[in-house]
Hints:
elongated; alpha+beta
Amino acid sequence: MGGAHPRPHRRRVARAGRRRRVGAAGGRALGGRGRRRTGGGAGAAGEPRRRHRAVRRPHGPHRSGHARRHHRVDRHRADAPPLGGQRVPTDTDSGDPGERLQKILARRGYGSRRKAEELIRAGRVRVDGHPATIGQRAAPSARITVDGTPLDDEQAALTLMLHKPPDVIVAASDHRGRPTVFDLLGDVPAGLRHVGRLDRDSEGLLLLTTDGELAHRVAHPRFEVAKTYEALVDGRPGDEALARLRAGIDLDDGPTSPAEAERLRPDGDCWWVRLVLHEGRKRQVRRMLAAVGHPVRRLVRTRLGPLELGTLEPGAARALTGGELAGLRAQCGLDGP
Length: 337
């Protein structure tokens, strides 16, 4: 029965033979890793086999050129000082932090702050002769130019309230020759734009301004500037219809946000109702009231945020008072520096 277990014996013989072959090779790679032995075979001189220790790559100033290239600071960033060690002077050097350049440009009619940032990135804006950078502040005494044209120090933002009459288009021009709101204003400064829209048949308070950031915030739903409308509708809206308006109406472009809704007074077979919205989709008030079964016959915007149309005559316009402008800017979060 002695030949019943030959395999363990053959395994030991095979291992011993393999060790002898490796030792005789001397410099042959071990374990397929490409490491070379520095002496004879293991045990040839009675010395134990040495293990190779991994070499740590140095960090810091002594690391390799490859690592330095990958960790090199980009000296061409917009916020890095120019080469040569000369730093562009800013208005903060004089101790006056000033106002952010994007806000100044937006208020002077160069669009929203995002549009102003695009002008700065394109290299079209300079402050005291130096290229402007994103986030830079400018003191009141700084000389700011856009495409070489200086901002007029005396030119302040203009914000107007217009009582838009019906049958007038809210646009700078109309290819069909219909009258526009700018025809009512006559000579206006460059950069004056309307804030939001009123459709041709609607009337009431329309805001126009050269302040790009103010225009953006008043029109954007995120700032929730309230818009108050009074509408003359067919029939008498019941409590159920008013509850639907308050909860929001499913329109073809999605559900509306909740609105304030109330009945005001009868007018013949019709009723006046008041709606307060915090968004401004195309013909939204008309579509909401039609959805509850009361089509609009006449629509007037009476308030915009803290501004009230009051007794301003149709077709007339006036500049906002200091208090009105401050209240509107505060509601839009623009009262800070």
